[in-house]
Design a protein that fits this description.
- The chain is α+β, with helices and mostly antiparallel strands.
- Helices cover 27% and strands 24% of the residues.
- An eight-stranded mixed β-sheet has the order 3-15-22-14-4-13-12-11.
- A hairpin with a 4-residue loop joins strand 9 and strand 10.
- Helix 14 packs across helix 15 and helix 15 packs antiparallel against helix 16.
- The longest helix has 18 residues.
- The two termini are 25 Å apart.
Length: 530
């Protein structure tokens, strides 16, 4: 079964140089398009030659931190289950071309100020209610609501009007042209409106996805069962999915090796060598990146209000050692946020800061700073702790003593959103793997209007806004604006990127058909166990 969606006048267009949503006429195999590029180190379960799909069975997935209901509409390391319970309007393929999901086709207006969506018919929520255009209207307005802590609120806010043409056709009217609308469509989960207030407390998660929530056990995980009324005929194959919280790395690895779990994306990089040697497990890496490890600086805390101090910190970090020792080599040492698949990627930007402690000490002396003492917040998980300890060592070599502040994941995310960080913090960010403008208008660390570092610059705002609204046919101008954004990030160093992470999947060899969307939502529509 295939869907055809029409060309999009003046719509976003990018392939290896500049691509975004929906240029040209495309055909897609429903449910199969949109998987992120993956490469197996060894023949992993999801990529190896497989037997015919088999119906039934329970998949046990191991995660290192629990689902946080209050962050349901944010993208974080607790978002893995989103695509299991909910659908999205569209989904990118590996070339960043949007493919149908709950929207089957779309047409942009010539001026880029509205888009008409044709919606899938015959779709029902887990409670039996039919999916209509009203659910899309609610989803957009829900992300516009400030209490939802949704990173793509700026893009959602550009939708200023709705015109329904029956239950399955909807026109979204835009305040101005934006080139990341399909990022919003892939990020935005479609929820049952009546259950949303219960969803953000973890009581009810009702979507149109392949699995329905049976139970959330705080601290233990999620139990999901097959949605027999799923709109994709004959799917999913699996009967159940159990997402089990195993915060200790050794226990998580033991669970995989013993067969108690068949899937995880949370094996620490330095432990992947052990996993790779296990005959019943395979490792798959997704080459569009899993976000990036970064070091954030609170620019209102002295002496980090001095740009030269922030630059000194950027020069002090040994990114290659960090990559090798803490991430097992799975990733790309980089001073810029972009994966190689991004049109904003530049080798010059990637290598702008290298390990140069001498230059770091010189900058600190020239700025009149002697020995410094700063706090560094990090998530209290083994892999994150290893990164923080590596940074602590590097900074000590240039005269900066760092006191580590281990923090649970949910609290760290809330501090990120509320701009309540200490002098320094290290976490991972996403949003560099989609339309480049999305990073600077949506990701909390980079947001031009309100970022966690409390960095403000009229010039940064101007460049970001131009990049966000630039007509997508102006490839050369768009690339110039991307370069300007990268230049500001590198020069101002309020966010110091360290490593573009590889998304690493560990799976049992008997597990097949796994994909992820661009926001690392797990898709098990076609997954099966043999």
């Amino acid at each position: 079964m295939t869907e055809l969606h029409p060309s999009m006048p003046n719509g976003p267009s990018r392939r290896t140089t500049l691509r975004a949503a929906g240029g040209g006429t495309l055909m897609s195999a429903l449910g199969l398009a949109g998987c992120r590029s993956a490469v197996s180190d060894a023949s992993s379960g999801s990529k190896s030659t497989a037997a015919a799909p088999r119906r039934g069975g329970t998949l046990n997935a191991a995660v290192n931190s629990d689902f946080t209901p209050g962050l349901l509409f944010s993208q974080s390391n607790q978002s893995l289950q989103h695509r299991l319970i909910y659908n999205t309007l569209t989904r990118y393929d590996d070339r960043l071309e949007p493919q149908p999901e709950l929207a089957t086709s779309w047409t942009y207006a010539e001026d880029g100020r509205s888009i008409t969506l044709r919606l899938r018919e015959g779709v029902t929520f887990h409670n039996g209610r039919k999916f209509t255009a009203d659910d899309v209207i609610f989803a957009v307005k829900n992300l516009q609501n400030p209490v939802r802590a949704a990173q793509l609120r700026s893009t959602a806010a550009t939708v200023t009007g709705f015109e329904k043409r029956g239950d399955h056709e909807l026109v979204l009217k835009l305040a101005h042209r934006v080139n990341n609308l399909f990022d919003l469509f892939e990020f935005m989960i479609i929820t049952d409106p009546s259950s949303v207030e219960s969803a953000v407390t973890g009581k009810k998660l009702i979507g149109t996805g392949p699995f329905a929530l049976k139970k959330w056990s705080p601290g233990s995980g999620l139990s999901l069962t097959r949605h027999d009324g799923y709109w994709l005929p004959g799917r999913p194959y699996l009967d159940r999915v159990e997402i089990r919280v195993i915060p200790q790395a050794d226990a998580l690895i033991s669970s995989l090796r013993s067969g108690q779990s068949q899937l995880s994306f949370d094996v620490p990089g330095k432990s992947l060598g052990v996993v790779k040697a296990a005959p019943k497990l395979g490792i798959t890496t997704y080459d569009t990146g899993a976000g990036a490890v970064y070091l954030g600086a609170n620019t209102t805390v002295s002496p980090l209000n001095d740009r030269s101090v922030r630059q000194a910190i950027a020069w002090s970090v040994d990114r290659e050692r960090l990559l090798a020792q803490t991430l097992g080599g799975y990733g790309l040492a980089s001073a810029a946020p972009w994966p190689k698949s991004s049109p904003a990627y530049s080798e010059a930007h990637r290598t702008h800061y290298t390990h140069n402690p001498g230059k770091a000490r010189e900058l600190l002396r020239a700025a009149g700073h002697g020995k410094l003492e700063l706090d560094l917040l990090h998530i209290a998980l083994p892999s994150d702790t290893a990164i923080a300890e590596a940074l602590q060592y590097d900074l000590k070599q240039v005269g900066i003593d760092v006191t580590l502040q281990p923090t649970d994941s949910a609290t760290a995310q809330k501090k990120l959103i509320s701009q309540d960080m200490p002098a320094l913090w290290t976490m991972s960010h996403g949003f560099a793997q989609v339309q480049p403008s999305t990073l600077a208008v949506s990701a909390y660390p980079f947001n031009e209007a309100k970022n966690t570092s409390k960095y403000r610059s009229a010039h940064y705002t101007q460049v970001v806004r131009e990049a966000w609204t630039e007509p997508e046919t102006s490839t050369a101008r768009a690339n110039t604006l991307h370069d300007e954004i990268s230049g500001i990030l590198l020069d101002e160093a309020f966010i110091i990127d360290l490593v573009v992470r590889g998304q690493v999947q560990v799976a049992a060899r008997g597990l097949h058909g796994i994909t992820l969307n661009k926001f690392s939502y797990l898709d098990l529509d076609h997954a099966y166990l043999v």
